[in-house]
Design a protein that fits this description.
globular; alpha+beta
């Protein structure tokens, strides 16, 4: 039996599922979604992703994280952004909205590394 869901919650589910499929990084620590600073004109910001996760009642944190420059940006500084993190124990909250994620979580090898982006710290 399908549970009745408010339209805004269903819309948040669609946005989160597509965002996770396109840019989610699943590792031993959980799921990470990195967003470059000032990306809001082209894609959802970390704050917007967080709003959708709140609607879906999925616990998360946002940290400041840095990535290496693009290959075409020789001698540039690290790229600053925000990373939305859902710790592994909280992924069950997301599986409710994205059942296909359950198999992927089960396929994570024990020796898989954790959070990948360097120099991260909690965002204010």
């Amino acid at each position: 039996m399908t549970e009745a869901v408010l339209p805004e919650v269903r819309a948040a589910q669609r946005r989160i599922v597509s965002t996770v499929r396109v840019s989610g990084v699943l590792n031993n620590d959980g799921l990470a979604l990195w967003r470059e600073t000032r990306c809001g004109e082209w894609k959802a910001t970390a704050a917007e992703i967080g709003q959708d996760l709140q609607l879906l009642e999925v616990p998360y944190t946002i940290v400041t994280a840095f990535r290496f420059p693009l290959a075409s940006s020789y001698n540039k500084a690290m790229r600053q952004g925000d990373e939305v993190r859902i710790v592994r124990n909280d992924l069950t909250h997301l599986v409710r909205w994205m059942p296909s994620l359950k198999e992927s979580i089960g396929d994570i090898p024990e020796d898989c590394p954790g959070w990948a982006f360097p120099c991260s710290s909690p965002a204010p």
